[in-house]
Amino acid sequence: MKPFMQCLFVGTSLLLSACGGASPKCAGAEDSGRIVASSETAVTRTEAGDVAGYAGEGLYVFKGIPYARAERFMAPQAPEKWEGVRSCRAFGPTCPQAVRGGWQSDEHAFAFDWDDGHAGEDCLRVNIWTPGLNDGGRRPVMVWLHGGGYAAGSGQELPSYDGANLARKGDAVIVTLNHRLNVLGFLDLSAFGEEYAASGNAGLLDLVAALRWVNRNIEAFGGDPDNVTIFGQSGGGGKVSTLLATPAAAGLFHKAIVQSGSMLRTMERSYSQRIGRVLLEELGLRPAEVGKLKTMPYEQLLAAGEQAVARVKAEAEREGISTFIFGWAPTVDGDVLPRQPFEPTAPEQSRDIPLLVGTTLHEFTMSTYVPSFRTITEEQAEAFLRQRYGDRTEEFLAAFRKAYPACRPVDLIDVDCVFRPGAVEQARLKAQQQGAPVYMYLFGWESPVMDGMLRSTHCMEIPFVFDNTVRHASMTGGGPEARALADRMSRAWLNFARTGNPEAEGLPAWEAYTPENGATMYFDNDCRVLHHHDRELLDVVRSFPTRGF
After folding, report:
1. pTM of the complete model
2. Helical packing angle, 202-217 and 235-243, nearest 10°
3. Annotated catalytic, 195?
């Protein structure tokens, strides 16, 4: 059993904690599993006022702390100050969003075990796990940006996101957060006046506001504002990619990790403004009536927004645009986001920021979501591939078998050919800068849950990164092999956050990626470094590009 630190705040201890005093020392293992939540426990000060969390298992935990406030479509502002001590022990509101479609599948609902919380537009909140308060600990800070594209998700949605194990293991401060999404965060109304100039990037500005809050407040939570790592998966990886090119975020973080979300390009203003215009048409409003959107019921606004995105996306496809994400995403506006994140080059502002980037082997696994594919024959797989690769199918098959010589027919349709090409391109562009190093990984461990149907699907690496394979056993099975790999991976992520180098005990030497060596750490029960193992395969795949992710 790991030792539990019982907080012994009495009398002047509360004053010390609230006003920047040292963290208390804690008692022994006999209290393991106990939580202490009282007016004399886990209290510290932020710029807006004092906050109270709770203590347990050697950590202090705070949830739902406001980092900013914002009117609909407007840039975020500093949070309102409060008197006394604010209780911050439960997750705050999540951004309103469409009903999660995954609940319609019992298997997927079981595996992912979502917590969708309670929704509210006043959702700009951070959650913190830390081993110490006001103790001058200067711990590395890891700020997690959740997935769900830019339309859905929250900082609490998966059991994997719980920061306790990572904070405790690495003597680190872990932060998760909520921000504005979908029509609330990325509806570009800039065509209707200067008041709405930043509306298409409101959600991105929320992320900047959260990082600014961390910079100004995290010392009170035992963290080092000069050693902040941003990391995120899927849409969260896209957010990391975009922040690397966002001038307002410069200097607010020092390392970056992109998991299955190498967003090289995002929305062009010509399309994002078109969505704003079409949304008004859907609602029967004139441009002069744009102000009515500020008070319109969210459900009505979202429905019109979804219709507008669908209409403009169809137009964009007729104009030759093919993209993985379209609509709700940051827009290149020449101000908040002056350029595409990683096109044509890596952003100069992040030249000196080390980058860790990778994907899972299977990502959106065809056989996970289409059961009939689980027993597919080689002939059936090849027929399926011909629909995409046409007369280059034989070339694809030869390159695939060279990259994965032990492949089965199902692998031909399950192995990801969408996310990895973008990740490799992002790593190549970063390495070409010859600034801070970039490290690559490929996560190939396959879950045994539900007869192995999940494989190494999208999100599978998250419980390993957070060392939460037991907490999220419905996804990983929670067995000894999962726990062993999680130990190695979480140490790598923590080491990268602390030093900029992910090498860790139990892993082979991890070379920095270069276009010449193609070095990629392959995570499985037997971890190994690959060198350009799939270069020929990616050459074929890139002939059939998908813009965006």
Report:
1. 0.93
2. 70
3. no
* 343 in catalytic set: no
318 burial type by CB count under 10 A (0-12 exposed, 13-18 middle, 19+ buried): exposed
Across 148-160, average pLDDT: 97
% pLDDT > 90, the chain = 90
| Cα–Cα distance for residue pair 315/348, rounded to 1 Å | 33
CA angle 386, 391, 396 (to 5 degrees): 70
SS3 109: helix
Annotated catalytic residue: which of 458, 461, 474, 490?
A: 458
**Tokens 């203590």 appear where?**
55
Decide if 1 contacts 32 (C-beta within 8 A).
yes
Tens digit of pLDDT for each residue in 161-195? 999 999 999 999 999 999 999 999 999 999 999 99
User: Of 219, 363, 382, 461, which is the active-site residue?
Assistant: 363
Examine residue 344 and say whether the peptide bond preceding it is cis (omega within 30 degrees of 0). Answer: yes
C-alpha pair distances (Å), 512 with each of 95, 322, 330, 345, 509: 37, 32, 30, 19, 10
CA dihedral 467, 119, 73, 320 (to 10 degrees): 60
User: What is the average pLDDT value for the chain, to the nearest integer?
Assistant: 93
3-state secondary structure labels for all residues of 268-293: EHHHHHHHHHHHHHHHCCCHHHHHHH
Examine the residue annotation and report whether 319 is marked as an active-site residue of this protein. Answer: no
